[in-house]
Write a structure and sequence with these properties.
Elements: H1 5-24, H2 62-68, E1 91-92, E2 101-108, H3 116-123, E3 128-132, H4 134-139, H5 141-149, E4 153-156, H6 169-187, E5 193-194, H7 203-211, E6 216-218, E7 222-225, E8 228-231, E9 243-247, H8 252-265, E10 269-271, H9 273-276
Parallel strand pairs: 1-6, 2-3, 2-9, 2-10, 3-4, 5-6, 7-9
Antiparallel strand pairs: 7-8
Helix pairs in contact: 6-7
The protein binds zinc ion.
The site of zinc ion has 5 residues, from strand 2.
Length: 278
C-alpha cells in the first residue's frame, strides 16, 4: 500500500511535532539546551515598545516557576552528623545540626511524574532526595534517572509501601533489602537512607534498615501538598535540619516552589541529605 496524501501529511505533522519536542522538552542533553529568554529567532524582530527584561513569564509555565524561586544564601560547607558505629539506624524527623539548611524529599513515584519537574530541578538547582518504591523506580527508570542526572539522589522506600511497624524482622528485611537491591541494580548505587511507608516504624525497622545498608531512617518535620506547607512541629517555621516531605503527585511543581519559599522565609538554604549523612 502506497503512502496516501493523508499519510504524508500525518508523517510531516509528526516530524514537526518531534522537532518541537526535541527543542523544548527533556532530552539526554541536559546541559546548555535552553535558549536564553528574549533571544530573537527571526531576522526581523517584532517591535516591543514596553518590553522589559524583567517581564514576568506566564503563570504555570516552567519559566514562571523558575522566576518565582527566591535567591538563597549560599549553603554552608556541610558538617556531617555523627552516626552510631554499629546500628541500629537512627530515626530523624530533623537532622541534629545547627547549620542553616533544610532538606527537600519526594516520595513514592508510582502515582504521577510531572515531566516539567526535571527541568525545574535543573534550572533552579533544587537539591532533592527521592524515596522511591522499587516497582515504580523499575517501571519509570528513565524519569528518575533524569532527575538523578540533574542532581537528585535516589533512596529507599520499600517494595510494596505497606506499614512495617509490628511486622517480623524477616518481613521488614525483605521489604527494605529487596528494594535496596533493586534500586542498586537500576541506578548503580545502593541507597544509604530509608524512609518507612507512612512513617510507621518500630525498633525492628531501624535494625533491618541498618542491616540493609541504611545509615539513617528519615521521618519529616513538614509536609507539602498542593502548594501548602503543613508544619508538624510547634515552631511553625522551618528549622535548621528540617526535612520537608512531598510526593510524586500532579502538583509537585507547586509543592517544590512552596517548600523553597518556606525554607527561604526561615533564612535557610536547601541542601542534600547525603552531604550530611555520610
Ligand atoms: Zn510513601
Amino acid at each position: 500500500m502506497s503512502a496516501t496524501p493523508a499519510r504524508r501529511i500525518l508523517a510531516a505533522v509528526t516530524l514537526l511535532a518531534l522537532l518541537a519536542l526535541s527543542a523544548c522538552t527533556v532530552g539526554p542533553a541536559l546541559h546548555a539546551r535552553r535558549i536564553p529568554a528574549g533571544t530573537p529567532t527571526s531576522a526581523a524582530p517584532i517591535p516591543t515598545p514596553s518590553a522589559s527584561p524583567s517581564a514576568t513569564p506566564a503563570p504555570g509555565t516552567l519559566n514562571w516557576y523558575v522566576s518565582q524561586v527566591p535567591t538563597f544564601p549560599e549553603a554552608p560547607p556541610p558538617q556531617p552528623v555523627q552516626l552510631p558505629p554499629n546500628g541500629p539506624a537512627p530515626n530523624w524527623h530533623r537532622l541534629p545540626i545547627d547549620q542553616k539548611v533544610a532538606f527537600i524529599t519526594i516520595d513514592d513515584g508510582g502515582l504521577a511524574r510531572p515531566p516539567a519537574v526535571i527541568d525545574f530541578i535543573w534550572e533552579a538547582r533544587i537539591p532533592v532526595t527521592m524515596f522511591l518504591n522499587s516497582p515504580a523506580a523499575q517501571e519509570h527508570t528513565d524519569y528518575f534517572r533524569q532527575i538523578e542526572a540533574v542532581g537528585g539522589i535516589i533512596e529507599n522506600h520499600t517494595i510494596s509501601h505497606t506499614s512495617l511497624a509490628g511486622r517480623s524482622y524477616a518481613y521488614q528485611r525483605q521489604e527494605i533489602c529487596g528494594a535496596a537491591d533493586k534500586l542498586e541494580s537500576l541506578f548503580g548505587k545502593r541507597p544509604t537512607l530509608f524512609r518507612a511507608p507512612f512513617g510507621n516504624h518500630d525498633a525492628t525497622t531501624l535494625r533491618a534498615a541498618h542491616d540493609c545498608g541504611a545509615k539513617a531512617v528519615l521521618h519529616w518535620s513538614e509536609t507539602v501538598h498542593e502548594g501548602k506547607v503543613r508544619y508538624q512541629t510547634p515552631e511553625k517555621v522551618v528549622q535548621p535540619g528540617d526535612v520537608l516531605l512531598m510526593h510524586f503527585r500532579p502538583a509537585l511543581m507547586d509543592d517544590l516552589l512552596a517548600a523553597l519559599k518556606a525554607i527561604h522565609r526561615a533564612g535557610l538554604t536547601p541542601a542534600l541529605l547525603t552531604d550530611y549523612i555520610k
